[in-house]
Structures are given as C-alpha cells and as structure tokens.
Amino acid sequence: QVQLxxxxxxxxxxxxxxxxxxxxxxxxxxxxxxxWFRQAPGxxxxxxxSISWVGDKSYYGASVKGRFTITRxxxxxxxxxxxxxxxxxxxxxxxCTAQPYGMGSPTVSHYEHRGxxxxxxxxx
Length: 124
Hints:
- The protein is mainly beta.
- The chain is built from no helices and eleven strands.
- The chain has strands at residues 3-7, 10-13, 18-25, 32-39, 46-51, 58-60, 68-73, 78-83, 92-100, 113-114, 118-123.
- The strands form two sheets. Strands 2, 4, 5, 6, 9, 10 and 11 form a seven-stranded mixed β-sheet that branches. It has a four-stranded antiparallel β-sheet with strand order 1-3-8-7, with no helix packed on it.
C-alpha cells in the first residue's frame, strides 16, 4: 500500500523556520517526482516546490522562491521542504505529492499520490 506522510508542521512566528518531511512507504521516492502544494481555507491548491524524479531540477512557486528549499534523502526514502523567513501568508495545510518518473509539474492533478497534509500556521 502506497502512503505518503507529512510531518514537521506547527505554529511559528513570522521570520521563523520549519522543515517539513515527506516519508514514503510502498514506493521508492527516488523514482518519483515530488511536489509540495499548500491549501489555505477556501482556496485552491497552490504550487510550492517540486523536484524531478532524477533529482537534477527543482522548481519553486513565485511566493516562496528564495525562502524555501526542496531536498531529498534517497537512503531515508524521504523528501524535505526547508522553509525559512516564514510569513503569515504561508499559513496553510502542506501536502506532498508523488508522480512516477515525473519532471516536477506545478499542477497538483498531475501527481498520482498525495499525503494527508501537515498544518503550518504563521503568526504576525
């Protein structure tokens, strides 16, 4: 059974940092593109970051570029999203997604698997 599980969310103040983790079971994440998306209440999913299945290309949404970094640890079958200089507008549920042999699409519907999400709340 394929499962993605996010962790690392929490309640922080503006300017703080968090690192989210996406642990996989039932699949080998190094064969998958991984994307991070976030969803605030009443809004659509917003693209945050992605990395190609090869791991040679990463992409970022305009609102997080320069502050967030996506990385992976193939040995741990885990991807990470390092989030620095957090802002109140970063408040959302963050989901990791996976697409076999994907290139890192910014479109959430292109991903085959999605985790339940982890809440990130940033206070001013």
